[in-house]
Design brief:
Layout: E1 12-16, E2 27-29, E3 33-37, E4 42-47, E5 60-66, E6 69-75, H1 78-89, E7 94-99, E8 105-112, E9 117-119, E10 127-141
Antiparallel strand pairs: 1-2, 1-7, 3-6, 4-5, 6-10, 7-8, 8-10, 9-10
């Protein structure tokens, strides 16, 4: 059977540039994304093992969800650097959105946790790496 997977070509990484009371929301791409890692939520567990646990086997129950982190690497441009610097020093939580090639979106809130690093090498290019701590549960909306 032939793969039904799609390529990453066409993905986008945006932040909300409209005020909270403005609808519909206005999204602006941060720049030329070369690598996007969407949020990676995980769930912790609580150990409920007791002295009479069946089969002497530990018992666990689900607990809190850790929303994780997201990351985007962008081609360096002065304009992109200015946008990232402004987001890094901004107070409060920002809204971000990953756009998928099939029209799906994943929206989440968070904040930059580090000043972007510029990477470069011989015959290479400069990039900006933007780590984002996610707060709250990301919302995925399937494409049409």
């Amino acid at each position: 059977m032939e793969s039904q997977g799609i390529t990453a070509d066409g993905m986008s990484f945006s932040h909300r540039t409209s005020a909270p009371e403005i609808t519909p929301k206005v999204w602006t791409e941060l720049g030329e994304a070369v690598s996007i890692t969407p949020p990676n939520p995980s769930r912790s567990s609580v150990d409920f093992t007791h002295l009479k646990s069946p089969n002497k086997t530990r018992e666990h129950k689900p607990s809190m969800i850790e929303p994780g982190e997201a990351n985007v690497t962008l081609n360096y441009t002065p304009e992109t650097r200015a946008k990232i610097d402004a987001l890094f020093i901004a107070e409060g939580i920002q809204e971000f959105q990953v756009g998928y090639p099939d029209g799906a979106t994943e929206t989440f809130s968070g904040f930059l946790t580090g000043k972007p690093t510029e990477g470069g090498e011989v015959e290479g290019k400069l990039t900006l790496n933007c780590p984002i701590k996610v707060t709250g549960l990301p919302v995925y909306v399937a494409g049409e």
